[in-house]
Write a structure and sequence with these properties.
38% of the residues lie in helices and 15% in strands. It is α/β, with parallel strands linked by helices. α4 packs parallel to α5.
Length: 504
Amino acid sequence: MSTPRELRPPTADELHAAAAVHHLDLSADEVETFSEFVADTVETYAAIDRLRPSDRGASPEREYRRPTPDEDPLNAFVSVCEVQGADDGPLAGYSVGLKDNVALAGVEMTCGASLFEGYVPSTDATVVERLLDAGATVAGKLNMEAMAFGGSGGLSDFGPVRNPHDPAYLSGGSSSGCAAAVVSGAVDVAIGTDAGGSIRRPAAWCGCVGLKPTFGLVPYTGIVGQAYTVDHAGPMARTVRDCALVLDVVAGADGRDPRQCAVEVGAYAAAVETATPDDVTVAVVEEGFGQNSDGVAVDAAIRDSLAGFAAAGATVGDCSVPLHEDAGAIWTAINLEEMTAMVRAEGVGHFVTGSFDAEYAAAFAEARRGRADEFPPTLKLTLVTGQYLADAYRGQYYVAGKNLRRRLVDAYDTALADADVLAMPTISELPYRVREGLSDAEQIDRALGLLQNRAPFNASGHPVVSVPAGAVDGFPVGVSFVGRRGDDETVLRVAAAFERTVES
């Protein structure tokens, strides 16, 4: 999409501009001295040009196209395709949809933003390689909130994603099309991403199962991220069993994702096969309820479903995690400045090793410098707020947030010492009606509202699954089960036992 700029030493004005970013006011002598050394450094960069690949290599020839409205009445897809995997495997016969920030070589990846129309990755994301090797067929790239900055389902540049239970309402996001496509039956399973609840909110609103795995369990290589310490990728499906089957396939280290360290993989599908309520202990987090005056009916539905779980044999009791009330602030303190830094680093970031898409970084840099005014209002707000807080308070709140993260992990771990899982509503709001002509303030309020029961676990890294738990006013509601870090097997086992209770 872009051509590298000519490598040359900076002018004096460019040196002054670079210095000003670091609050330096260079003297004329310093400019003269530094110019020589910078020129020498720039000359060494010629070796990088010589050593890096001269081209991206040949992308697979994979046909794709935009769907028609008749084919896609919920607007769940950005593009449709048919990329067939191996002849057999655990996912043979399964159709898979990919959130459109997951690279599928030879197929356009827009991240839900017109800024990236025409960008075609040349390699598959690790999760895609694994899905295809397991026999799955990729059926398309799924619509999402622009650049994954939002949660309502109404912020894609390709139009809102509609709720399969009532198309006059939104699906939730940012993995909007994933939930809508799964529930409508357009795909069997989907891969979503989640930096603050983006798998779980649409799962709750549309009525499917959505898993945010333990941090680092599923490799993020080849997926466009937001911030290295909160990014997660995970499966979405109509059943817990299908989520577990997909997790069996995609989990595990790939040696290229800096988010992964000493990953231990479980036997997830096996864990759910014989799950029963009898050997399940659930601690219901008091602070997870009563967050929204309009959410009384949702809270009541979740409590009723958990009471039914107890009646079926599960041990269900209340617990208190006082820090949960402020956990969203901890996530925000970390997330705002990390996301801002990620954007400044051309969407690739600093200080980590791994495998990175140079062509995507170039496309991102081009978009940021030439078309940033087209960013969604949520991303603009993030950048302005994150930069202000970083500059005005010199990173102190970011540092404090990172230190408080350890307290947050300890608080949830303490609550989990006597229970298999914690439980709370996934979100205590019902879907929003599709509306045109919303102000920026209305869009932001819809996109970022009620993160409290989702975002904290992106900061802490605990696995969370949202499971359908009844309905309110004709829309499904979801309960979240939170487990110990690294124990996704238990989270899925509890979810499967609960699912069978709800269905019976």
